Amino acid sequence: MSIFLDPQLHRYLIGSLFVIVGVLHFLKPDLFMRIMPNYLPWHKPLVLVSGFFEIAGGIGLMIPALLPYASWGLILLLLSVLPANIEMFRKYHKRQGFTFFVLALLLRLPLQFVLIWWVYWAGSAS
Fold first, then answer.
1. Over the stretch 36-61, which tens digit does the pLDDT of each residue have?
2. How far apart are the C-alpha atoms of 42 and 91, rounded to whole Å?
3. How many structural domains are present in the chain?
């Protein structure tokens, strides 16, 4: 099997990505609070909680005993933040029209499902 198709390698790759983004939730919470849907209360606590779970899930992907819990937890997390990604696109589209940046935000939406698949594949493939 090619090293690039090794699920263990991908567990470390995607796990590291989640840890990095989770840490950013604590270092730069304002970046994430700006995309929070207005209908959700407590923006900063929710950003910090989601950052904590991104870090925990990312680390969990790298620990075999925690792998099934981490992968399903991250899948649920990715689904739960999808409204924030939609809101981010909606806000910028309303403010800027259809710019290159807004197009990138639109293309980011299907990427969420690619991430879900990647976490599922890395977490369940042996």
1. 888 889 999 999 999 999 999 999 99
2. 19
3. 1
Range of the domain at 76: 3-124
Measured from the Cβ of residue 20, the count of other Cβ atoms closer than 10 Å reads 12
> Which structure tokens are listed for 123?
């977490």
Residue 23 to residue 75: CA distance in whole angstroms: 18
Indicate the DSSP class of residue 4. G
Residues making up the chain, counted from first to last: 126
Neighbour count for residue 95 (Cβ, 10 Å): 9
pTM of the predicted protein model: 0.86
The reported pLDDT for the residue numbered 67 is 93
Confidence of residue 126 (pLDDT cuts 50, 70, 90): low
DSSP string, 29-69: HHHHHTTS-TTSS-HHHHHHHHHHHHHHHHHHHTSGGGHHH
Backbone angles phi, psi at 125, to 5 degrees: -75, 145
